[in-house]
């Protein structure tokens, strides 16, 4: 289906971040096992920043994806850029594939 096409992909360590056309959710997959590790829905962040009256479904779509400076950078169709920090390690101090992101732990990080 056209609406299920992969739109963007970014690779970091053993993880691959993927965005799907017309979807507000990013997915993290393990590059070797292909196991899905995490979902990250950006719509709540955009709604919190702009309010619901300023949102159109087509404008919330992910328009760009980049990994730089230990962060996942997400551009949207309405011009908002999100910068989400990666977690460095899990509780056992093991490096995480794709650096699973911590979301909502501190508002100044988003």
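Q: What amino acid sequence fits the structure above?
A:
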């Amino acid at each position: 289906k056209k609406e299920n096409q992969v739109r963007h992909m970014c690779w970091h360590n053993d993880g691959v971040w993927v965005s799907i056309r017309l979807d507000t959710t990013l997915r993290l997959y393990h590059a070797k096992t292909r196991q899905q590790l995490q979902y990250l829905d950006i719509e709540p962040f955009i709604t919190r920043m702009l309010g619901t009256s300023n949102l159109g479904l087509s404008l919330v779509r992910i328009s760009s994806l980049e990994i730089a400076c230990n962060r996942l950078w997400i551009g949207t169709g309405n011009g908002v850029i999100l910068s989400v920090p990666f977690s460095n390690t899990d509780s056992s101090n093991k490096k995480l594939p794709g650096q699973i992101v911590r979301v909502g732990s501190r508002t100044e990080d988003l």
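Q: And what stands out in the fold?
A: The chain is about 5% helix and 40% strand.
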